[in-house]
Design brief:
Chain B: Its main location: membrane. The complex is a heterodimer of chains A (235) and B (360). With 235 residues, chain A is mostly helical. Helices cover 79% and strands 0% of the residues of chain A. Chain A has helices at residues 4-21, 23-30, 39-72, 80-92, 95-106, 110-134, 138-146, 151-181, 194-203, 206-230. A 3-stranded antiparallel sheet of chain B has the order 2-1-3. The chains are: A mainly alpha (235), B mainly alpha (360).
């Protein structure tokens, strides 16, 4: 079931920020004399930006989910501390530093940013998955085992089915964070909505900076709105 | 033990272990670990395999993995010297992707088998550096050439992070108290501070410059106080804006963590609001607050990096200069100290939290 009302505030914010990113609006606000960024190129950058964010979030989602499932299995509990610590370190190092560390190893382009977004996204997904799986009542699990379901079936048909809404919340947080931070990719040569920001900084053109910032935030809120609408609310 | 397998694969597969370039800006030609180290490649491989062996006690595994990391470093230094021996003085030998993957794998193995061994690894790396084993590596050459700038950048970085943290505390603590007294205000504040997090950090730093410039034009007296639209001011303000959320959350959460029954009992005993705060709420709030403070300190050290974009200096300035020149060693010279500072701050804060009574 699609719930339009849940995502409406974020959607309205996204539209307002998109208007702010329009060349005419931005240059009027900033009183800039230099040329603004044309809409067509902003649009192309937005598509690149979205693709780059997804390229970072999808592996983070898979790794976070897999780790979350493994550390909540009886055999994997010993790894819980190590996984938590690794995810905390990954979150403590800001993406711009990861990009700076990754460029020497992987060169300019998408790879450093994808790596940074991936490391940044694992923790929200891992935390949400572990929290959601631990919130499944033990009686439910015992009942499913008593009916004769195999451990794999219990996981798929009972635990993940119950945990799914909370896991999706974590995925939403990870995606919104990734869209907001993908702008740093511009520093490592990836075409993103951070590109006008970097150009604006280099040429002291505040209009470009505002356009890039507003467009990035708009895309982040759009992602939030879409996921809020697509995901059924927790009852 | 996945990290050991990844590290061994990085050493044995045809990945560039070292890059040898005619000067500091040109991309280097890759040399695989087997070609660069010859038979010596067996040493880190064996140490990694030993470190991953589950039968061994944890400390032996950690020590073995730590020795593998140090062997990688020392052997890379020796191999760099051999490769550069016949080349012009401007030639550089830098770490390649294979080295980095193997190093990250070895350090991850150390962390898994016994994280305290990390201190010994750090000490060993310092000894290798002091003993001149690494002098031929491009990163060390670059670091020696810029030792003065590097030292200044570290101090500036810490000063900026400290200033941002202080400012964020000055704002977040009273706001959290106000929000605690008036929950509706608190909800609005929480939403506003969370909204800041969605603004891309690079954009907030950049946007503060025109905003501050407009403010300084409107109120020229501020200029006399030494404030400028470019420099430390936008860096400190923008970093503080991001730190406000974890601080606000932990203070609010800490204040709310007091059991209402305990507060009512204190009221019934005739305690004033001030005494309840000091004797009931604060002791209960302290551990929660300490957790938020740790997150904020680590984030401050990372976020101040972007100050390099707005003329505030610090280690970020080295990173962005390196990115602009495509000079990878300069990027690392800025980024590695940030990573080490953040990890050191996190470790110290965790230790302090544990002493405070409740591990996070």
């Amino acid at each position: 079931m699609i719930r339009l009302r849940r995502g409406l505030p974020a959607l309205l914010l996204a539209v307002a920020l998109a208007v702010l990113a329009l060349p005419g609006v931005a240059s009027w606000l900033m009183g800039g004399t230099q040329g603004p960024y044309p809409v067509a190129r902003l649009w192309a950058l937005a598509l690149d930006h979205a693709a780059l964010s997804l390229a970072g979030v999808l592996p983070a989602a898979l790794i976070g989910l897999a780790l979350g499932v493994v550390v909540t299995r009886p055999g994997g509990r010993g790894l819980r501390g190590a996984a938590d610590a690794a995810a905390a370190v990954a979150q403590a190092v800001p993406p711009v530093v990861v990009v700076a560390l990754a460029v020497p190893a992987f060169g300019f382009g998408w790879a450093p940013t994808v790596l940074a977004l991936m490391l940044y996204g694992i923790m929200p997904v891992l935390r949400a998955t572990v929290g959601a799986l631990e919130a499944v009542p033990p009686e439910t699990r015992l009942a499913a085992e008593a009916v004769g379901l195999s451990p794999g079936q219990v996981l798929r048909e009972v635990e993940l089915a119950l945990a799914w809404p909370l896991v999706l919340d974590g995925l939403r947080v990870a995606l919104v964070l990734a869209v907001a931070t993908a702008a740093v990719g511009a520093l490592a040569g990836a075409a993103t909505l951070g590109t006008p920001i970097v150009i604006g900084l280099q040429n002291q053109n505040a209009v470009l900076v505002l356009q890039g910032a507003a467009a990035t935030a708009s895309l982040a809120f759009l992602a939030e709105a879409l996921l809020l609408m697509a995901v059924p609310a927790r009852e | 033990m996945i990290p050991a397998l990844v590290a061994i694969a990085a050493l044995l597969l045809p990945l560039p272990f070292l890059g040898v370039a005619p000067n500091r800006l040109l991309p280097g030609e890759g040399v695989t670990a087997i070609a660069a180290l010859g038979p010596w490649v067996a040493l880190p491989v064996a140490l990694l395999a030993l470190g991953a062996w589950r039968r061994l006690p944890g400390w032996v595994g950690a020590a073995s993995a730590g020795l593998a990391a140090l062997a990688l470093l020392g052997l890379a230094g020796m191999a760099a010297g051999e490769r550069l021996a016949d080349l012009a003085p401007a030639a550089r030998a830098s770490f390649g992707a294979g080295f980095w993957v193997a190093m990250v794998g070895a350090l991850a193995l150390v962390a898994m088998r016994g994280a305290w061994m990390g201190v010994a690894v750090a000490a060993g790396a310092v000894l290798l550096l002091a003993g001149g084993w690494l002098d031929q590596l491009s990163l060390v050459v670059e670091g020696r050439a810029r030792a003065e700038a590097l030292r200044g950048a570290v101090l500036t970085h810490l000063a900026l992070a400290g200033a941002a943290l202080g400012l964020a505390l000055l704002v977040a603590v009273p706001l959290a108290w106000a929000g605690f007294r008036q929950p509706r205000l608190g909800a609005a504040l929480g939403a506003a501070l969370a909204g800041v997090q969605v603004v891309p950090a690079i954009a907030l730093f950049a946007l503060l410059i025109p905003l501050l410039a407009a403010l300084l034009r409107a109120v020229p007296a501020l200029r006399d106080l030494g404030l400028g639209a470019v420099g430390w001011l936008p860096a400190v303000l923008a970093t503080a804006a991001y730190l406000a959320l974890p601080l606000w959350r932990s203070v609010s959460g800490g204040l709310a963590s007091a059991d209402p029954a305990a507060v009512q009992a204190a009221e019934a005993m005739g305690m004033t609001e001030g005494r309840i705060l000091a004797e009931v709420r604060l002791p209960l709030a302290l551990p929660v607050f300490a957790g938020g403070l740790r997150v904020a300190v680590v984030q401050a050290i990372g976020l101040v990096t972007l100050g390099g974009l707005v003329g505030a200096g610090g280690l970020g300035a080295l990173v962005f200069e390196g990115l602009a020149q495509f000079a990878t060693d300069l990027m690392l010279l800025g980024a590695l100290p940030i990573l080490l500072l953040a990890l050191a701050a996190d470790t110290l804060a965790r230790a302090a939290e544990t002493r405070l009574g409740r591990p996070a």
